[in-house]
Specification:
257 residues, alpha/beta, TIM Barrel, eight-stranded parallel β-barrel, 10 helices, 40% helix
Amino acid sequence: MKKKILKIIQSKNNVPLVCLTAYSKPFAKILDKYCDIVLVGDSLATAMYGMKNTHEVTIEMMIQHGISVKQNLNKALCVIDMPKDSYKTTKQAIKNARLIFKKTKCDAVKLECNGKNYEIIKNIVKKGMPVMGHIGFTPQYHKKFKPQGDSINEKKKLLDQAKKIQEAGSFSLVLECVNKNTAKIITKSLKIPTIGIGASLNCDGQILVTDDMLGLSGFYPKFVKKFANLNNIIEIGVKKYKKAVINKKHPTKKNTF
């Protein structure tokens, strides 16, 4: 097992894992200083491309952004989302996972659980490619947003999924928008670390979409806390630039050849 993957597993019940998303060089370089895991998420669909959901993301898109991010990471583990419909069968999943690993040199891929694809996860891991699991609200398989794990049946279902994903060989598991008590039960029941997004402090780590938590995306559901407001900072910069151009204050001699 690779050292970086082993380090993530050994973090269980230790210092919480710090995880964020990145799609480009500038963000990757900053996040690498502070994050244990950097995810090249298919959330780039909405955060960068203005798509309604993640369903139209392609392998090519993930690879291009994955290359940009991975080249600028030294410390953090690089995980790349496998997009919707890229792992419907074992054969297809292994082929596409291999392509992502080969082109990007990433450390792992992430697959969303549909309640059936445990063997697919198992076979990818068998081929030497680490897999991060994902349960709860899974955007690739849910059309409408709804918190998960509130009822007894949902709690049992998610716990069963979590255990099966662990048995399949995943080294970690994302819990998205999962009831806090359910998240606690799942986290205590697993040997691998859980990473929460809207799933309470009961997880072994936390992840957010960087564009959301920095106030860039305009998407602020209950589980997103804004830690900065880059939208305002960028707007101030653009206004200053516009004023300088109109008043012929830019470029100055210093910026001219």
